[in-house]
Every structure is written in structure tokens, then in C-alpha cells.
Write a structure and sequence with these properties.
single chain, four-stranded mixed sheet, 28 strands
């Protein structure tokens, strides 16, 4: 579901169904690859990497952008998929669909003969079960918010074995983006849900679940996992029955792919330079320089494409509004002047230069730079200005400094808080340190301490009135280019409304943002929708619930052993640089 923003027991499997031919497979357009289908080779493995280890195999409890379920299924299953040439949505697992006149009800006819990786046929039951599990609040799925509009549910109804009806409570311009959700097998998840409810669902697919028991709806199946080292995937042999290239050949071309768990971003770059991974971490100028140097020296045969597009991710600092165990900090973090002061202390230009080597831009909004038409030209910003920050803090009573040079209030209490990010992400660590150093200039003591990514996500997504952190520096990805505001971020009861996880609005501006979000969601006129988005961005900027920092431009680097990238004109940070299933080893 592209409208969502993301941070990433023994089973009794159903018997394989009888062979059912797929009469109308999905044909991947030749224009989506830079290589004619007849020239693509079969076999081999695509070698990827990531910094943080995996947290779960469970698709209903994962909150991370890079997770095992994401790798197995995202982009290779779903009722529809988006065409990077036109932004239009094409029937995908659906053979066809119709829409009601009011734009609220969609009827889908599924392709017959599609199968899960265990050979069981994919039918309407699997979509209905997946919808039920995502919408059960007790399951805790981050996708839940996308299936509700102003507390009214989207409903998914089975009309027949291969027919589905999806009804939205009101018009939703992101409807198709939400219908890219993956169907997980009813004979696994539905069986557990019917016997043990949400608790049984949450217990499935733990990290110690044998890979052979994992059932995938997508192109890839987990084949092995060694914590802290590597996750391996093989192709789903049934997926190629309903996914063909433009020459009629089964996809994917690769036999599999792997993800190496690296210690930090420096290790990630080193692995790419050594030819051990196929996709380079080309996020900053120093990385690009080292990659180019290796290419020029002949030690690395790779393609480097700098400045492909603006980015479709965000980096930010969020302060915890739910800190009832420390009422004074809670009051401080909820104060808009405090957050505006913190924005003044974010030296974004220094972050762009020091972290990204100049290949980036300051960011002041939750709207990704690539979707700039939703950002107003007169967006309120609180740019780097130590004196302006000190003035705002003085209005909060912090007018004097102690013997160590830190601001104190009339009671002698120091202005101090803890800040953390995920250990090993050198870029985030560097941004956090820059912020801490600049804060010290203003007399604000920031105690910076990076921790494990999974622990960080647990803290950020904790709910209630005693969440266990002061401030976190992290980032988001995901979302869509139709209405680029997260259904799980903007509404006050959203699963990633991460500054305030009380489940209700606290500030009037939150209510205003929520109202504008749902207005934009229902607005079919693109110009009016952009105007609503710009208004939402302005309200958000004044509130400063999150201090947005800086982001790199989108660069692409890959080892030349891999073919099948997108044509250069289709590459951008939203669609990426290649479809893995069209990639091949030369």
C-alpha cells in the first residue's frame, strides 16, 4: 500500500491444488527494462545489503520499510500496480476491474490459476482474510489506517471464487494505491485467526520459523536467514505462471536474491567497492567519489548515475508528546515555541554539505522533495538561526546559563534532553551530532546516544502516555504520488502519528491537519487537491510536530554484472532504478 509510510510457530500448510492454467498472465511491458526480453539471461543471484537486522517475518506486525515480507511480496503482488511511464494503475493480480459511477465501489475479477509458493491457488478468500487481519486493531498492523476513512472502514467482499468487491466509505483518490496490498494465504493466516484470533496471528512467522514453512504470494520465497549476517531468497516457481516478460517467458529471470546485513554505511560501501554486493549506497558525494575512483581505476565494473531525481524519503527529529512520567519535559515538548526553536538549531546547510557532500537540500516539510508541487512557495520555515532559537527559549523562561554554559529556568532546571537514532547509520548519526553541536551553542544540552534500530522502532511506535524516549532522529519512506501524506501519520489515531501516540488530537493544528488530509483524500480535481496539500503543509510547518532536516538527491549505482535496469528516463526515487524481476546476471 503506497499510501502508507514505513520506517520494516509451526504451521500446517494446505495441500497443493490441482494444476490450473493461467489463461491471461500479466505481461511486463518491454519499456520497463533497458534490455530486450530475448537478451535477458536466466539464473544467478542479485546481492543486496542493509544496515539493520530483520525484526520479523510477519507481514501483519512489521513496521519497517525493509522487512522479509516486503522483499518477498511488495511490488510483485496486489490487485493493481502503477505504470512508471504514465502513473496509471494497471490490472495486476486482477485480470480486470470495473468502478461504480460514484467512484466508491470497485469490482475485481482475479486471474485464475495464480498460486502461492506452496502451490495453493490464490483466490478471493486470501484477499478478504488479509483485509480482515489488517483491519483488526488487536493485530496491530501499520496498514490498518489505510483501510479507514474518518473511522469508517473500507470493506472487501467476496462475490465468487475469483471475484471481489471493494467499497470505500467515501471517494478516495488513493484507492488504487491502497489496492496494491499483498494477499497472504487464508490457509495459513485465516486458519490461525479463526482458531486463535489476533494473538495467533501475531505469533506466526517468528524469526525462528523455518524458512521452508514461509508461504509467499510474491516473486520471492525466504530460503534461509542467519541473524546479523544474511537473508536468502529463491524465486517462487509458481509466480512465473502468471508473470511473463514481453517475449512470453516466465519471470523472474534470477534464481534468487540475498541481503547481506552490514555493520554500518561505511561497511555497506566497502562491500560494494569490493564487488560483493550489486547495488551501491550512493547517497552522498564521498560515496560517489569513491565509486567513481574505483570505476576509473578498473577495480570495479559498475554504472554510476548521479543526481537522477529529488528524493522520496525524509529525515527528521521528533519529540515525545506522551511523557507523563516526566511532566516538565512533556510540557516542554508540547510547546510550539520550543519545537520552533529546535528547528532554528537544525543547521540543514551544514548537514547537506557535511553529510551528503553538497548533493542534497534542506527539508522543511513532510512532503518528499520529489513531490514539490504539494509544497507551497511561501511555506513557513524556521531556518538555522541560533539567536532566534535563544529568543524563543527565553520566552519559555530559559534566560540564564549555568556554570557549564547551559540554559536554565527560574528554578535552575537545565534545558536538556536525550536524542537517539539507529546505530550504524553513519549519516543519521552525523546529522544528530551536528544538531547536538549546534544546540550546545544556544545553551541546550543534547545527550546523543545511537541504539539498535529495532529497539528504536519499538520506542517510536509505543503508545500510551509514558512512551520511553525524549527525541528520535529517523526517517520515513513509502507513500504515493497522488496524495503524498501518510494515512498512518497525519490522522491523530494513526499508527505512525509518532509525536503523539495517545490516539487523539492534542493540539488544534493536529485537528486542522487531519481535516485537510481527509478533504484532500476525497478531492478528485488535481489542482484543488494540490491546494489542499499546500495548505496542510503550511499548517504542519507552523505546528512543527516534527523538525525536518535534510535529504540527499537520488543517485544510482550498480554493478555491471547485473542487467535489466529501467531506462534512464523512467528512473526516479519514487519508482526506483530497476524491477528486480526484470533484472538478470549477465
Amino acid at each position: 500500500m503506497r499510501t502508507l509510510l514505513t520506517l520494516s510457530s509451526a504451521l500446517v500448510l494446505g495441500a497443493a491444488s490441482a494444476q490450473t492454467k493461467v489463461d491471461k498472465p500479466f505481461v511486463w511491458p518491454a519499456a520497463w527494462s533497458d534490455t530486450p526480453a530475448q537478451q535477458a539471461k536466466r539464473g544467478g543471484e542479485l546481492r543486496g545489503s542493509q544496515i539493520s537486522d530483520f525484526k520479523t517475518f510477519n507481514p501483519f506486525t512489521s513496521a519497517e520499510a525493509d522487512s522479509i515480507p516486503t522483499i518477498m511480496a511488495t511490488g510483485t503482488s496486489g490487485l493493481v500496480r502503477q505504470d512508471p511511464r504514465t502513473d496509471e494503475f494497471l490490472p495486476y493480480m486482477a485480470e480486470s476491474f470495473t468502478a461504480s459511477k460514484d467512484g466508491r465501489t470497485y469490482t475485481f475479477t482475479l486471474r485464475k490459476g495464480m498460486k502461492f509458493s506452496d502451490g495453493v491457488e490464490i483466490t478471493a478468500d486470501d484477499f478478504v482474510t488479509t483485509w480482515k487481519l489488517h483491519t483488526d486493531e488487536k493485530v496491530g498492523s501499520q496498514a490498518r489506517d489505510g483501510f479507514f476513512i474518518e473511522d469508517k472502514p473500507v470493506t472487501v467482499k467476496k462475490l465468487g471464487k475469483y471475484q471481489l468487491q471493494v467499497t470505500f466509505p467515501s471517494q478516495d483518490v488513493t484507492a488504487f494505491a491502497k489496492l496494491t496490498f499483498e494477499p497472504w494465504p487464508d490457509h495459513v493466516w485465516g486458519k490461525a485467526y479463526r482458531s486463535g484470533g489476533a494473538a495467533a496471528v501475531k505469533a506466526l512467522y517468528a524469526l525462528n520459523t523455518p524458512a521452508k514453512n514461509i508461504v509467499s504470494p510474491g516473486a520471492w520465497v525466504l530460503s534461509g536467514y542467519r541473524p546479523g549476517e544474511r537473508a536468502s531468497f529463491v524465486k517462487n516457481k509458481y509466480w512465473g505462471e502468471w508473470n511473463k516478460d514481453s517475449a512470453g517467458g516466465a519471470l523472474p529471470y534470477l534464481n534468487g536474491q540475498s541481503v547481506r546485513i552490514v555493520e554500518d554505511t561505511n561497511s555497506d560501501l566497502a562491500a560494494f567497492l569490493a564487488g560483493q554486493t550489486d547495488v551501491g549506497p550512493a547517497t552522498k558525494a564521498d560515496n560517489l567519489a569513491q565509486i567513481k575512483k574505483a570505476i576509473d581505476a578498473g577495480s570495479l565494473k559498475a554504472t554510476l548515475l548521479p543526481n537522477v531525481s529529488p528524493n522520496a524519503t525524509s529525515s527528521w527529529i521528533v519529540f515525545n508528546w506522551n511523557k507523563a512520567d516526566d511532566p516538565k519535559k512533556q510540557e516542554l515538548f508540547r510547546n510550539g515555541k520550543f519545537r520552533q526553536a529546535m528547528s532554528h538549531l537544525a543547521n540543514r546547510d551544514a548537514m547537506v554539505q557535511l553529510v551528503f557532500g553538497g548533493l542534497g537540500a534542506p527539508v522543511y516539510s513532510s512532503v518528499y522533495p520529489i513531490f514539490s508541487n504539494f509544497i507551497p512557495k511561501d511555506l513557513p520555515t524556521y531556518k538555522y538561526n541560533v539567536q532566534a532559537a535563544q529568543k524563543l527559549l527565553a520566552e519559555l523562561g530559559y534566560t540564564k546559563k549555568d556554570t557549564d554554559g547551559y540554559l536554565v529556568n527560574a528554578s535552575g532546571e537545565r534545558l536538556e534532553f536525550d536524542l537517539t537514532t539507529n546505530a550504524g547509520n553513519n549519516e543519521r548519526e552525523q546529522m544528530a551530532q551536528i544538531f547536538a553541536d549546534e544546540a550546545k551553542k544556544a545553551g541546550v544540552k543534547v545527550n546523543f546516544n545511537p541504539i539498535d534500530f529495532n529497539k528504536l522502532v519499538d520506542s517510536l511506535t509505543a503508545s500510551g502516555d509514558k512512551r520511553p524516549f525524549d527525541a528520535i532522529l529517523l526517517g520515513l519512506s513509502g507513500g504515493d504520488n497522488i496524495w503524498p501524506f501518510g494515512s498512518n501519520v497525519v490522522p491523530c489515531d494513526g499508527g505512525l502519528h509518532f509525536w503523539n501516540m495517545s490516539g487523539k488530537c492534542i493540539a488544534p493544528e493536529e485537528e486542522q491537519m487531519q481535516k485537510l488530509y481527509f478533504q484532500g483524500l476525497k478531492e478528485s480535481d488535481p489542482a484543488k487537491r494540490r491546494a489542499l496539500g499546500q495548505q496542510l503543509a503550511s499548517v504542519e510547518s507552523k505546528l512543527q510536530p516534527v523538525v525536518y532536516l535534510a535529504g540527499p538527491v537520488y543517485n544510482v549505482a550498480y554493478n555491471n554484472r547485473v542487467g535489466g535496469a529501467m531506462p534512464r528516463k523512467l528512473m526516479n526515487s519514487y519508482y526506483g532504478s530497476r524491477f528486480t524481476v526484470l533484472s538478470f546476471i549477465k
